Amino acid sequence: MGRVEGKVAFITGAARGQGRSHAVRLAAEGADIIAVDLCQDIDSIQYPLSRPEDLDETARLVEKSGRRIVTIQADVRDAAQMRDAVARGVEELGRLDIVVAQAGVAGMKGEPQWQAWTDVLDTNLVGVLNAIHAGLPHLEAGASIIATGSLAALMDVSKVDQPGKDPGGVAYMVAKRALSMVVHELATHIAAKRIRANVIHPTNCNTPMLQSEPMYRSFRPDLEQPTRADAEPAFHAMQAMPVPYVEPEDISDAVLFLASDESRFITGAQLRVDAGGYLKWYDYHA
């Protein structure tokens, strides 16, 4: 028996990166998957997003483990599309036990700047809430909601050196902070139904979002066209452990734990998978 045997998981952003990793790991532990992704670019986001063939590859990997999967190209920014995706998946797979609101974009250096602000908030905050709200009516006691936050949500960056310089980049932090607060409050009130909700906060994670030209420029603003080789030494600044990033599978370990009955009394947690990044910002406090 797998750790989530017989459960069904709804995962957004499932075509590649962390989302694909979560789908594959949960399937390997017995879950069937409803996999959703946009599979097209957003004009203001300055790196390529997933494609339909990426979602097809996720399906192939899930099916390789012997589990069922429903793949749907849909936009988390659209609440109706999320409701329809969940309804279609539940109709085919019979139930819903796990919601993994993973889809997200990074808008640093985005153009037009204020469109990047809007697209990041609509994806990383509104999109997370749309996914959770679509799943809620189908969840019963023992279900688990998991949202992807970020170490950026926990960093103390209260001082703004150049207001208005990079609203798309700032929107990422704002969205992750806001979703963390919303999930905290949601967890409080769905606890009475024995449904759990938690947030996972990764540090740098080795995905196409991190390995992208705008991210390289964010870490190496001193260079006009930095490469991965230029940026990777700077990635270490985020973590206390001597690593540039964690892998998607490291986050999937935490997703599996929070999705499984092993964490049946854990709710409202802000779980950091950050290689000690938080420790560099804060002293101990109870």
UniProtKB/TrEMBL annotation:
Quick check: keyword NAD in the entry? yes
The entry's protein name is: 3-ketoacyl-ACP reductase
Tell me which Pfam families the record gives: adh_short_C2
- Its signal peptide is none
Source organism superkingdom: Bacteria
One Gene Ontology MF term:
oxidoreductase activity
| Protein family per UniProt | Belongs to the short-chain dehydrogenases/reductases (SDR) family.
* Record keyword Oxidoreductase present: yes
Q: Which PANTHER family match?
A: DEHYDROGENASES, SHORT CHAIN, ESTRADIOL 17-BETA-DEHYDROGENASE 8-RELATED
Q: Which SUPFAM superfamilies is this protein grouped with?
A: NAD(P)-binding Rossmann-fold domains (SSF51735)
**Which keywords accompany this UniProt record?**
NAD, Oxidoreductase
Q: Which InterPro entries match?
A: NAD(P)-bd_dom_sf, SDR_fam, SDR_subfam_1
